[in-house]
Design a protein that fits this description.
elongated, Four Helix Bundle (Hemerythrin (Met), subunit A), Arc Repressor Mutant, subunit A, single chain, mainly alpha
């Protein structure tokens, strides 16, 4: 029986673990865009798994648009700009720097979404956002159901923009931050965290009700910065500047 390599860690679903390992190899640059993937036999031997496990992992990566197959030749790493699907590796999001970048993306998208929602929201969309807020502040606030309500609050704001693409992207991001909310609830005094978190959401909701896009953006930005801090992440603050090549 093969000994599973420590490179992929303890297993719940082996193909997903192998896919995550390959994603890390690509992210680190050890597997470069356009480069041919190692053979199934090679990966199976290196990772201590069966060829079937490797084959399923490669299929996942193909579905995610990370690799492409050439019949009779093998699989190749896709260029990042050619990928047609978005995938974030949960293992990489355990790194605080990566989590900070995810919150920076969230800040960019959700801040603008809040501004649009303040202008475009309907009575029906406000009612849905309020129901999610009431769940967060109600009996579920001490339970995991509060996390579901929290994410629903943000999804309903995205839906209120009337832009399906914004809604799709924010729904995707919401699922990626679920782990960070769990982390925040487990590492901060729960009573204090819940009170602060609910209060921030109330301020966002009040700005939406008032139809004030500037205030909605400001309150969402404040909330996401606070959420990042409570999750142990820091929003990148240093501006990116171009080098002077003259």
């Amino acid at each position: 029986m093969k000994q599973i390599s420590a490179a992929i860690g303890a297993v719940e679903h082996l193909p997903s673990k192998v896919a995550s390992y390959i994603n890390r190899e690509i992210s680190s640059g050890r597997l470069k865009p356009g480069e041919q993937m190692p053979t199934e036999n090679h990966l199976a031997e290196r990772l201590g798994v069966s060829r079937n496990v490797v084959r399923e992992a490669i299929s996942q990566l193909r579905a995610d648009g990370v690799v492409r197959a050439r019949q009779g030749v093998g699989a190749f790493v896709m260029e990042a700009e050619q990928r047609l699907a978005i995938r974030l590796d949960p293992e990489e999001l355990k790194n605080s720097d990566n989590t900070g970048q995810l919150f920076e993306l969230r800040n960019t998208l959700e801040t603008e979404a809040a501004g649009l929602a303040a202008v475009r929201r309907s009575d029906e969309s406000l009612a849905k956002i309020k129901r999610a807020l009431d769940r967060m502040a109600g009996e579920e606030r001490w339970e995991d159901g509060s996390i579901d309500a929290d994410l629903l609050f943000h999804r309903e704001i995205a839906r209120a923009t009337g832009n399906e693409y914004i809604y799709t992207f924010i729904c995707f991001i919401c699922e990626q931050i679920r782990r960070s909310i769990h982390f925040a609830r487990n590492t901060n005094p729960l009573h204090e965290l819940v009170e602060i978190n609910v209060a921030e959401h109330v301020e966002v909701y009040d700005a939406l009700v008032a139809g004030d896009p500037g205030r909605a953006r400001e309150k969402m930005r404040t909330h996401i910065a606070g959420a990042a801090e409570r999750a142990g992440a820091t929003l990148p603050s240093k501006p990116i500047t171009k080098k002077n090549t003259e």
